[in-house]
Amino acid sequence: MKEKIDLLFTLNEGYLQPLKVALLSIHHNNPHQTFRVWLIHESIPEQELGALSSFLIDLGHELQPVTVDGSIWTNAPTVARYPKEMYFRLLAGEILPTHLTKVLYLDPDILVINSLTELWETPIDDAMFAAARHTGLLDVSTPLNKVRLDLEHGYYNSGVLLMNLTMMREKVRWEDISATIEKYDAQLFLPDQDILNYLYGKYTVEVPEERWNYDARMYTSYLARSLRKHDIHWVMEHTSILHFCGRPKPWDPRNDTRFTALYLSYSNLLNQ
Fold it and tell me: Can you tell me the distance from the alpha carbon of 33 to that of 26, in angstroms, rounded to the nearest whole number?
């Protein structure tokens, strides 16, 4: 019997449908693996949580919802695209049960198209996170973010994080997060991601974005950067997590990328 993998999502009611699509893709492409899904939220109705739990039980997995008081984030930068639920992952070590030593956090706007086992087994005993950087063809964002946030390391994407909860409990403090919000305020363009990089980027080990956090908008860049090695056949064989960063999302009719049809195929399965 394989070790159960603990997954973490932090979201509000508006992202329950994309969450189900993500979970269905995880199930289909990890057929011999069981998952325990931790959902940190503030106000998702019990009826919706019950429906989600039944959905996961039917797939052979389990749901562990955790309700939190989000009032401490009242002064943190939020917009419709970045609700306060995005911050909850920063305090996962404090919120989740102490018997958990690690968890794999995923944004809900993802598809999993291959196994997650290798990522789950990535050694992080001496790191707080394993994460990828979205560097692009010319990697113009890294120098800008280093200057903007005074970083001495790369800028990591927070949409996929293997979390060392033991180290998070040792080092993550609300006081530090609050001070960072107060210090940078309007400069927090991607608020929780900026905070994570500023405070904890130095405790992060890098994993390849092409495999574990593939930006679905950037197929042409990946192809060029790999000298045409990472074509669509390579992606379907080697990439595990497609991340639909930015706008429009793949469930929006305006979205039309190389991977939109793949996303919609999983979405359509939910209605069968």
Answer: 9
Q: Which domains does the chain have, with CATH numbers?
A: 5-269 (3.90.550.10)
- 3-class DSSP string for the chain: CCCCEEEEEECCHHHHHHHHHHHHHHHHCCCCCCEEEEEEECCCCHHHHHHHHHHHHHHCCEEEEEECCHHHHCCCCCCCCCCHHHHHHHHHHHHCCCCCCEEEEECCCEEECCCCHHHHCCCCCCCCEEECCCCCCCCCHHHHHHHHHCCCCCCCCCCEEEEEHHHHHHHCCHHHHHHHHHHHHHHCCCHHHHHHHHHHHHHEEECCHHHHCEECCCHHHHHHHCCCCCCHHHHHHHCCEEECCCCCCCCCCCCCCCCHHHHHHHHHHCCC
Give the separation between CA 266 and CA 272, rounded to whole angstroms. 10
How confident is the model over 125-142, as pLDDT tens digits?
999 999 999 876 444 455
Q: Is the pTM of this model over 0.85?
A: yes
Predicted confidence (pLDDT) per residue in 55-110, tens digit? 999 999 999 999 998 887 776 665 555 567 878 899 999 999 999 999 999 999 99
User: If 0-12 CB within 10 Å is exposed, 13-18 middle and 19+ buried, where does residue 165 land?
Assistant: buried
How big is the chain by its Cα radius of gyration, in Å? Answer: 18
